[in-house]
Design a protein that fits this description.
CATH architecture of the largest domain: 3-Layer(aba) Sandwich
Number of domains: 2
CATH superfamily of the largest domain: ANL, N-terminal domain
Strand order of the largest sheet: 3-2-12-11-13-14-15-16-17
Number of helices: 11
Structural class: alpha/beta
Strand content: 25-35%
CATH class of the largest domain: Alpha Beta
């Protein structure tokens, strides 16, 4: 699907028969007919409100709730995280909402509805509902790292177009039957697009769980026979490699939320015998480009996406976007449309008169053998005349000198971190990102330990 043309609506799900398995939940299959019946039943009993906060932990129950809201022409709010403060802010901003949950969670001040698979509901043999492409079905929020989170409305046309374009870039049509397993949360844009919309638009099987540990990932993939896609992040992929888990054959790995180091992609392809692809996107526009990491740094825009220069920046444009969206990263675009990424402008720092991208420094740190995770950081309390970078690293068995020696081969002396702090883990959020607030707390904890001589 590259253009809306005369199309005014598209199916709620892809090409399934009523008895086809749409999801795999807790070791049990959920058929397309059962899903349609449950979504229709829930749509009849939810309150008549304009917006809904869907907190279902099961990917399948989340999908049932999403479908019910769509059928009732309600908008699903996608919270940036599950922190009580974030949820409370959403309730304040959208007071006429209700909440869907599958584990009895409640939010003070709004009505909560329990959504659970209804075994007693007979599978539905009705026609698959068609949804107007211009219907707003969800609202995503920016991370809020630079201020209050901003809402970004998502139409049904946008979600389905991205799913079809992503599937085309990955060659999904040639990999059926297909199971999609994801370590990423489904209430974030990448998770919604890649772990929910991607499988249901392509007639694939969606794994309802969210395996976090490497052994859980292997077990989830082993539950189904045949081709699979693992939707994950660089952090989870590195963990799977470190643990040396065995994955079944005929797989494809799709990573996003942070740049993937080339050496990690190469190791993963060789070890798991699976292609490793990356998706690039941002909340304002959704997924916009893809690449197979080992093929080089160039990104390929998804079908229907164009990157147009606007002065010194670029805009992402597609038929399903109401207006072109500024690309938050610094990029350079070739005449054929492919482009290179150079990190976000906010990641650019000036160290002793030299500008550098923190993202680029992070990639060099993560490329060191034995480094499981790491991040560079520029403290805020440095004087204008003396600016020193620091870095936090997760590298069991490595010494400070070993890491610094490896960095000296990769970086100019001015960019070497002082200090280099070893930590057992980094405070990444559920999408694998490191909010600045979390890093500031990590710096404060380090300072307190240093003050006490630890």
């Amino acid at each position: 699907m590259t253009t809306s043309g005369a199309m005014r609506d598209t199916p709620l799900i892809g090409s399934y028969s009523a008895d086809d398995v749409l999801a795999w939940e807790q070791g049990r299959p959920r058929t397309a007919g059962q899903f349609l019946a449950e979504g229709s039943h829930l749509a009849e009993i939810v309150p008549d409100r304009p917006t809904v906060l869907n907190l279902a932990n099961s990917r399948y129950e989340f999908l049932v709730g999403l479908a019910a809201a769509i059928l009732r022409r309600q908008v699903t709010l996608l919270p940036q995280n599950r922190a009580s403060e974030s949820l409370r802010r959403l309730v304040d901003d959208y007071p006429h909402s209700y909440c869907l949950t599958d584990q009895g969670e409640t939010i003070e001040g709004i009505e909560s509805i329990l959504v659970q698979s209804q075994q007693a509901i007979a599978p539905c043999h009705m026609k698959i509902p068609r949804i107007p492409i211009d219907q707003v079905v969800a609202i995503a929020f920016t991370s809020g790292s630079t201020g209050r989170p901003m809402p970004h409305a998502k139409t049904w046309g946008a979600l389905t177009a991205v799913a079809h374009a992503t599937g085309a870039s990955l060659g999904i049509s040639s990999r059926k039957p297909l199971t999609v397993v994801a370590t990423v949360p489904h209430h974030h844009m990448f998770g919604l697009e890649a772990s929910v919309m991607l499988p249901i638009m392509h007639g694939a099987v969606m794994h309802a769980g969210r395996p976090l540990f490497p052994a859980d990932v292997a077990n989830a993939l082993a539950e189904r026979v045949g081709p699979w896609i693992l939707v994950t992040t660089p952090l989870h992929l590195r963990a799977c490699l470190t643990e040396g888990v065995k994955l079944p054959p005929a797989g494809l790995i799709v990573s996003a939320t942070a740049p993937l180091a080339l050496n990690v992609a190469q190791e993963a392809e060789q070890y798991f015998q699976a292609e490793v692809h990356e998706i690039f996107g941002f909340a304002e526009a959704g997924s916009v480009a893809h690449r197979r990491t080992i093929n080089g740094e160039q990104w390929h825009p998804l079908d229907g996406v164009r990157l147009n220069q606007d002065g010194g920046s670029f805009l992402a444009d597609a038929w399903y976007l109401p207006t072109p969206v500024p690309v938050p990263d610094r990029i350079s675009v070739n005449v054929d449309g492919r482009f290179s990424l150079y990190g976000r402008e906010a990641d650019q720092v000036n160290v002793a008169g030299h500008r550098v991208s923190l993202g680029d420094l992070n990639q060099k740190l993560l490329g060191i053998d034995g480094v499981q995770d790491g991040v560079f950081f520029l403290p805020e309390d440095e004087s204008p005349l003396v600016t020193r970078l620091m870095a936090f690293v997760v590298a069991p068995g490595k010494t400070n000198e070993e890491i610094q020696r490896a960095l000296r081969r990769r970086l100019a002396p001015v960019f070497l971190p002082r200090p280099l702090v070893f930590v057992p883990r980094l405070p990444r959020n559920e999408t694998g990102k490191l909010p600045r607030e979390s890093l500031l707390r990590l710096v404060q904890e380090w300072k307190e330990r240093a003050d006490h001589g630890f």
